[in-house]
Amino acid sequence: MTEKKDFLRDIWYYALPGSLLKPGKMMAKTFLGEPVLLARKHDGQVFALRDICPHRAVPLTCGRFDGQEVECCYHGWRFEESGRCTAIPSLVEDDALDLNRFRVKHYPVREVQGNIWIYMAAKDSKKEPSDRDIPLVPYFGDRSYQMMVTLRFPCFVDHAVIGLMDPAHSPYVHRAWWWKSGRVLFEEVKAFDPSPYGFTMRRHEIPNLALGYKLIGGAPETEISFRLPGVRIEHVSTKRHNVCNLTAVTPISENETDVTTILYWTMPWITALKPIMKPFVRRFLDQDRQVVTKQQIGLQYDPTLLLIRDADTQARWYYQLKAEFERAKSEGRDFVNPVKEQVLRWRS
């Protein structure tokens, strides 16, 4: 496996938790190397624009936002939510200049289940984004999350994604008294099926429960799905309770990637433990970040990476899914999932 630093386009990416963007406020973000302004109007509607004024290239987030329009700090040019220029104060009253000539790139955004998603289109793309392609956690309807942790990984998006789906690293990377000791490895046998833009590990009872799963009580079962561009959703359920974990990988640049873990649950008593739990969730995610940071030492020498069966099959699928996504776009046809129904075995 050799590295090719290409970002997928014409697809929804996780942007940020909706609670971080307050009404009447805007913020600067970077996605796939592009500067983006995210803002929430006073009525609660969210919009996104390219964070560069087309006049003199000053970031629009350096200016002002009145809850309706963004005003550049340099010359006061104003832009509304679609990116259309609405005012150029330096123009004299009888100037017939058509303001429609001056626009800022607009990005489609949607807010669902407490999360803001952004559609990153390819240049000159004519593909219309479909809301049906936005990842959703099952069972929780329109409810928002109860806990969120984001960490920035110093790597290209592929390495963060592969680390996310790697089934064999847990006893070594996540070795801790509250998760796994790493002293004993168990054979895992799991069935997988193709699912939209990805694959799903079939629902099964969780053997050899780590402490984190024991908190749910009962005999928990889990189903884990992955889909492009880098979203993993785990649904754990018992007869009484449900827990969902959505982990989204968002490329910032070729060398930086945000990984966000979002938790939903139905157990009221866990909410009271949230201040205690959150440091453990952050620590768990940071263990992945630390090993990826170490990985960068070797990657600077551009090695060819070797993948094995069956523990690395999910990583193979990821690259196959990316390749098919790009081929389908270039050939103007529907995506055909390359993943086939399969049983994988590994020790973890």
Automatic annotation (TrEMBL):
Keyword Iron recorded: yes
InterPro entries, sorted: Cholesterol_7-desaturase (IPR050584), Rieske_2Fe-2S (IPR017941), Rieske_2Fe-2S_sf (IPR036922)
Ranges for domain Rieske: 13-118
GO molecular function, one term: 2 iron, 2 sulfur cluster binding
Database matches in Pfam families: Rieske (PF00355)
Top-level taxon in the UniProt lineage: Bacteria
Keywords, sorted A to Z: 2Fe-2S, Iron, Iron-sulfur, Metal-binding, Oxidoreductase
Name this protein carries in UniProt: 2Fe-2S ferredoxin
Native source organism of the sequence: Aliterella atlantica CENA595
